[in-house]
Amino acid sequence: xxxxxxxxxxxxxxxxxAVDWALARAAARSQRLELVGVxxxxxxxxxxxAVVDDALAATxxxxxxHAERIRAEAPSVPVSVRAEAGNPVxxxxxxxxxxxxxxxxxxxxxxGDGPARGAHGVRIAAGAACPVVVVPDFxxxxxxxxxxGIDGSDxxxxxxxxxxxxxxxxxxxLVAVSVWTPxxxxxxxxxxxxxLYLTNMQAATEETLAxxxxxxxxxxxxxxxxxxxxRGYPSQVIGDIAHDARLAVVGTHGRGALARFLxxxxxxxxxxxxxxxTAVVR
Length: 282
Hints:
Blueprint: E1 4-8, H1 13-29, E2 32-39, H2 48-73, E3 79-85, H3 88-96, E4 101-105, H4 119-127, E5 132-135, E6 146-149, H5 154-170, E7 174-180, H6 195-212, H7 216-219, E8 225-231, H8 234-242, E9 247-251, H9 265-272, E10 278-281
Parallel strand pairs: 1-2, 1-4, 2-3, 4-5, 6-7, 6-9, 7-8, 9-10
Antiparallel strand pairs: 5-10
């Protein structure tokens, strides 16, 4: 069984948070760490080789400094480093094929920090062969709970299993969220819906959530599970709930070599405005 957590490391402050998050998980689950730094942007111009070599040397020095700190703080966690030249998205997606988990940082600093961002993170999460954890550049200490979005799909089932295992490991409650959105059309955006329709949508979504959670109590008998069924738009509802959470987990669908870079609007919107540390699970 692969027990490697791969961490994409850059010189940005968010990378330090990503390394710290990965280290805590590796120590708790007896996993190993691989720190990967990528020098990108090479064009093959004359004289570029020396520039790339210098950048690789600086990247290795940065990775070695992280590794030395890890060995001092958690000597039981094996750690290795790897510096490469290439496209960061391609390198990390390829690394994910040999990893149990891929962890990357985001420079997003929360509400009010400008427009949504994270094109590289979205592409990495969409193409990775393992779950991807994206760590924002703000402090999440003191938060509680693991929030997971459930929609009845296979992808959300995998997300639920990942979230339940993390909640159980962390001793946190699991907050399972299912969201239903009323039917919309260009001419009925302000429509008044029949009460029977709204009641049936709520009941159907509650049933979907109950079915998804049916086996969790058996697998994790001590896990506290909170069920939330809400009306609204999924990424907004899940994001709002996850703003006070320690971890958010969402599922995504693998759809082939080309379309895999289309992560899906819900997951993509959540990654664009990270409410907390967020895992994307295929």
